[in-house]
Amino acid sequence: MELHGELLTYVLMGDLLRFVGSGVGGEETLDVKPPSIDEVRALLALVDLGFVTGDFELQNVLSVSFVEGIDGEPFFLSLYPLLGPAALGEISRQQQFRDAL
């Protein structure tokens, strides 16, 4: 996840999505134990907070590497009720954009 001493946030967010998904899908990912449902809720609350209070760069990495395509993940229907309003708003915005194409 590092290149030349710099954290690759887009890779990190992709791994976070798979980790969170393993908590609702029950499949181990990244060779770690899946998070509990409480841990999933806490992580998703942080994602939502990032959308609300984060700077442009954080919001962009969350949009591109966490939310984009999330609705195509096999665990999405289980994850959907746990997502916060800001993340749901971004999912809706992206779906509307894709539908307009």
Please characterize this protein's 3D structure:
With 101 residues, this protein is mainly α. The protein is 65% helix and 4% strand. The chain has one domain. It has helices spanning 9-25, 37-53, 56-67, 76-79, 85-100; strands at residues 2-3, 6-7. Strands 1-2 form a two-stranded antiparallel ribbon. A hairpin with a 2-residue loop joins strand 1 and strand 2 (6-7). Helix 1 runs antiparallel to helix 2, helix 1 (9-25) packs across helix 3 and helix 2 packs across helix 3.
Total E-strand runs: 2
- Overall radius of gyration: 14 Å
Please mark out the parts with pLDDT under 50 across 5 or more consecutive residues, or reply none. Answer: none
| SSE pattern, N- to C-terminal | EEHHHHH
Shape: globular
The total count of helices amounts to 5
| Relative helix content | 55-70%
Give the structural class: mainly alpha
What proportion of the residues form beta strands (DSSP E)?
under 5%
Give the N-terminus to C-terminus distance in angstroms.
33 Å
Identify the strand order in the major beta sheet: 1-2
How many domains in all?
1
Q: Tell me the quaternary state.
A: single chain
Main beta sheet: 2 strands, antiparallel
Mean pLDDT rating = 90
